[in-house]
Amino acid sequence: MTRTATRLLQAGVVAVMLAALPYKIFELDRYFVPKELILNVVALVIGLSLVLRAKEMKVDLADKLLALFLVWSFASAIFATNHWLAQRALGVSVASAMVFWASRRIGSGGEYQSILIAAAVATVVVSLTCLAQTYGLQTEYFTLNRAPGGTLGNRNFIAHVASIGLPSLAYCTVTSRRSFGALLGSIGAAIVAGALVLSRSRAAWLAVAASIVVILIPLFVSRKYWPHGQVGGRLARFLLALFLGGAIAGVMPNTLNWNSVSPYLDSARGMVDYSKGSGKGRLAQYENSLKMAAANPILGVGPGNWPVRYTTFAPPRDRSLADDAMTANPWPSSDWVAFVSERGFVSAIALLGVFVVLFFGAFRRWAEFGDGDVVLVKLVLIGTIVATAVVSAFDVALLLAAPAFLVWSIVGATSGARRMGDDVVRGGQWWSIASTLAAILLIVSVAR
After folding, report:
1. What is the C-alpha separation between 153 and 32, in angstroms, rounded?
2. What is the structure's pLDDT at 261?
3. Total domains present in the chain
4. 57: β partners
5. Could you say which residues of the chain have pLDDT below 50?
6. What is the pTM of this model?
7. Which of 305, 320, 413, 435 has the highest CB neighbour number within 10 Å of its CB?
8. How far apart are CA 94 and CA 70, in angstroms?
């Protein structure tokens, strides 16, 4: 059963990146709906096989905090204004948790590499769709809005996935059993770098920079644990390919119609500029959303209900409002602002605690692993959490099916590798109730 779940998880994380519909009248949902369907179906199957029907499970503080986040989100959804939106958003969160717990169990069984390979492939494949649109491929499955968004429909989403999946790609490259595999990994790095540059996503650029800075010292310390002498050379070639891919993408002619003669330089200059443009609008949006959170501090306004209530707290000329006085996007420009305003402070703190616990736990007990490969896996966990944290601070990732699937599968598999000191929880009445509710919610999400 574990092997079948692993294969389904691998197929799912790739399929969720490519799924799209050609119906342009539904500009956002033609991307979101098929991706959410894949996430919910995969989560339902692997959740029933590995999580919900388990007679006992190993749990630690991160698991408990994630469970608290889900319970609090469920309570928030009950009191939401729009229950359809609440159920949809809650379904993504529950499905993401199922992916995390299933991946963690798979990782604890030593199959973490299978998940990381799938994550790396998914990252490269979706980056290829970005390059394909950039250099002239035309298809009904691409959109001109926020191009080159490939099969994610938005260039920022492509960049978020690229920055989050980059540590997994690096790991697969340096630990490949064959030189050809390492070569493919370096080619993949060039492709991902090209997509990152072409996206002009400041959040993704900051995420990559932050990941490199944070992981630099741990990477240096980890050298004595490296499983073989080829790791250093392969890593150097990987970084070179990353640089060359980004540089070539920056100067090579393409079909994108930017409004500036130096679009990439302009984006680089505006990475931390919040005095004008979108940066200024984002700060105003954060301020208004926090007013919403302050007015509903315990349970928030309900999962997915930010656009329903934001107009009450925003001034008439707010940049987040469209001409029809509704929000231009169904979410704020930050996962964390969304969680605080929609689900309350307790829920947001619990989810943040999950990442904090896993981040610091990744630095522990390297000498006890007895396997240098596991140390590298923990570096992937560190880099992925940092990239996710930065992207989530400036845009949405955990709220959307595709990046959420990628994040939780990587974080689950890497944190599950060589777990130590966990409590064992045996199923009881409360577990049966929670499992039944989760299964029902996922079934409803699939049906809708």
Report:
1. 9
2. 62
3. 1
4. 425
5. none
6. 0.94
7. 413
8. 7
Residue 173: predicted pLDDT: 97
Residues 6+ apart with CB under 8 A from 85: 302, 303, 304, 305, 307, 308, 330
Domain that holds residue 238: 2-252+276-447
Q: Which residues, at least 6 apart from 171, have a Cβ–Cβ distance to it below 8 Å?
A: 116, 120, 376, 377, 379, 380
| Residue 226 pLDDT | 84
Extract the tokens encoding 338. Answer: 């969304």
Classify residue 380: in a domain, yes or no: yes
Would you say 280 and 304 are in contact if contact means Cβ atoms under 8 Å apart?
A: no
In a domain, 148, yes or no: yes
Assigned domain for 265 exists: no
Residue type for position 160:
H
In a domain, 117, yes or no: yes
